[in-house]
Design a protein that fits this description.
- This protein has about 100 residues and is an alpha+beta fold.
- It is about 55% helix and about 15% strand.
- The chain folds into two domains: about 50 residues, no CATH class; about 35 residues, no CATH class.
- The chain contains four helices and two strands.
Length: about 100
């Protein structure tokens, strides 16, 4: 999931077209991950935009599903509701008009 968080942070903080130094830094990081996780559009033979591939998206969804299955398999409905409510409080989601349930 480290790759997902690093990609998300770049997208969140830099938008679609990252500064050159950030593109080069991320391209070096991709060497640590499977080669089919990210696709790259180039300009002048240098990285321009990175995309998550369907392979990587499916990997993330499978990983998340496994975690939820493992965590949720022993939890009661009341425990899940209590946990959800505690996160709503921590995230202040109700204060900004979300999660009104």
């Amino acid at each position: 999931m480290q790759a997902l968080f690093e990609y998300r942070n770049k997208m969140f903080h830099c938008g679609f077209e990252w500064p050159t130094v950030e593109r080069e830094r991320f391209q070096k990081r991709t060497a640590d991950w499977p080669s089919d996780w990210f696709a790259t559009a180039t300009s002048d033979h240098k990285p321009w935009i990175f995309y998550m591939t369907d392979t990587y998206i499916n990997h993330c969804l499978t990983t998340i599903d496994s975690v939820l299955g493992g965590v949720g398999s022993s939890a009661t409905v009341d425990e899940i509701i209590a946990l959800e409510n505690s996160w709503k409080i921590k995230l202040h989601s109700r204060d900004i008009g979300l999660n009104r349930n």
